[in-house]
Amino acid sequence: MTIHIGAAPGDIAQTVLLPGDPYRAKWAAERFLTDARQVNDVRGMLGFTGTWQGHPVTIQGSGMGMPSLSIYVNELIRDYGARTLIRIGSCGAMQEQVALRDLILAMTATTLGSPSRGIFRELNFAPCADWGLLRAAADAAGAKGTQTHIGGIYSSDVFYDERPDLNEQMVRHGILGVEMEAAELYTLAVRHKCRALAVLTVSDHLITGEALPPEQRETSFGEMVEIALAAAFAES
Ligand code: HPA
Fold first, then answer.
1. 209 C-alpha vs ligand 1 centroid, how far in Å?
2. Per-domain boundaries in the chain
3. How many angstroms does the Cα of residue 160 sit away from the middle of ligand 1?
4. What is the mean pLDDT of residues 27-31?
5. Chain segment 66-121, per-residue pLDDT in tens
6. Does any ligand 1 atom lie closer than 6 A to the CB of residue 179?
7. End-to-end CA distance of the chain, in Å?
8. For residues 110 and 170, is the Cβ–Cβ distance under 8 A?
9. Mapping DSSP to helix (H, G, I), strand (E, B) and coil, where does residue 191 land?
10. What topology is assigned to 15-232 in CATH?
11. Which of 11, 34, 61, 124 could pair with 25 as two cysteines, CB 3.0-4.6 Å apart?
12. Mean per-residue pLDDT over the chain, rounded
């Protein structure tokens, strides 16, 4: 048990999927895991552990934004021994060729600064995904025929953005989409010699202004969970 996770030692699997929304963690655990049981409800940030094709898996909500994710991922890695951490979340598209419901696999994540910024000082550290996970997720998405984009994303600190010029620079520099967590996940994972990836579905579009209706988010979300699980346990 840690400050923010009430699970007993051994209740968390080495492979952890991290949706931002704790109710998505519940939904995914009920739908995709066998014998899923709730292992955390501290602050309502639900976590579940079960098995997928015989492999132990935990699905733990991370909350929104890098400071929240940083708390959970630090404790999952340092106190519970998590080794493979895959964010499953939504993002806003920043390129015209990216459509609603498409999948984005984040090769890198640009930020203004993550909670790890303090240790880098003048360095511009480039957080990047684990290559084995990225390749395996690309293969799994290809096998399903999911429209997939692989490249850089922007991990922003704000959903309600008052700096459109920053988004413009991201668009100009080929950034595929914006979310709020991946850069800190990648930084923590590499610091602790773990594997990490962010698998994202496009829920809204910053250029066209379109957004997925809530009932359609579930289908895309399910496909993303399957791709994340296949990637986690692919033979490397
Ligand atoms: N901005 C930031 N985070 C997001 C967005 C967005 O437009 N869509 C989904 N997560």
1. 12
2. 15-232
3. 9
4. 97
5. 999 999 999 999 999 999 999 999 999 999 999 999 999 999 999 998 999 899 99
6. yes
7. 32
8. yes
9. helix
10. Rossmann fold (3.40.50)
11. 61
12. 96
Single-letter amino acid code for the residue at 99:
A
CA distance linking residue 19 with residue 96, whole number of Å:
26
State which ligand 1 atom lies nearest to the alpha carbon of 90.
9
Distance CA 236, CA 233 (A): 9
> What percentage of the chain exceeds 90 in pLDDT?
93
Q: Which helix (H) or strand (E) holds 110?
A: strand 103-110
49 lines ligand 1 (CB under 6 A): no
What lies within 8 Å, CB to CB, of 177 at 6+ separation is 91, 92, 93, 94, 95, 98, 104, 153, 154, 200, 202
Does residue 146 register a pLDDT over 70?
Answer: yes
Report residue 56's pLDDT band, with 50, 70 and 90 as the boundaries: very high
Query: Which residue bears the tokens 């399910």?
Result: 222
Q: Is 21 in the pocket of ligand 1 (CB under 6 A)?
A: no
Has 130 been annotated as catalytic?
no
